[in-house]
Design a protein that fits this description.
Length: 189
């Protein structure tokens, strides 16, 4: 454990504070590496889609009940594909309705720390890849995401990234093939 690493108690307190901040938001949200789901629960059961305002812009989101202050109104931290972002109104078991907003991220290899830039952030380094459906990604994207996650873990442990390891391996191989050469002052970058 590095010197600056939080203790398990500090870690638990940070998680609890984060959970509390997220619970206080007027909506719930989840994400995969490629998309975000935002849920506004407790909409009166007699409401229809026309009673709501949901405006999804490239980097702004407004959602709420017509004629009232929006429940969500602010800038997104990263851009979304507006043409692939949608919303629906669904009935909940308790007789209320839920607005489900689906945001399609433009950058498919980036975790969001929050939905709106004014909202409290979550610690994206704590996201486990299993939380996202890594298997849903196409081969190339999945490989890129797995490499990024591997490199991130290596960096955190002070170990070489996959690229640095590859360079070192190539140099070792070359050294083995050329024992007559002196590499004592060699620097790889």
């Amino acid at each position: 454990m590095a010197e600056n690493d939080p203790t398990p108690e500090q870690e638990a307190a940070a998680r609890a504070k984060e959970a509390e901040e997220q619970a206080a938001l007027p909506y719930k949200w989840t994400q995969t590496i490629g998309e975000l789901e935002v849920l506004i629960t407790g909409i009166p059961g007699n409401f229809k889609g026309r009673d709501l305002v949901v405006d999804i812009k490239r980097q702004k989101l407004v959602a709420g009940i017509k004629g009232k202050d929006p429940i969500i109104n602010g800038d997104l931290p990263h851009p979304v594909h507006t043409e692939d972002s949608t919303w629906t109104l669904t009935s909940a078991p308790d007789g209320t309705k839920t607005v489900e907003i689906h945001l399609d991220k433009i950058n498919k290899v980036e975790w969001w720390a929050h939905v709106l830039t004014t909202d409290p952030k979550i610690d994206v380094t704590k996201i486990k890849p299993e939380d996202s459906k890594l298997s849903d990604l196409d081969g190339e994207t999945r490989g890129m995401v797995e490499k990024m996650m591997f490199d991130q873990r290596q960096k955190e442990m002070g170990k070489p990234t996959s690229d640095e390891q590859k360079k070192a391996d190539i140099l070792e191989k070359f050294k083995a093939q050329h024992p007559e050469m002196d590499f004592s002052n060699a620097k790889i970058s």
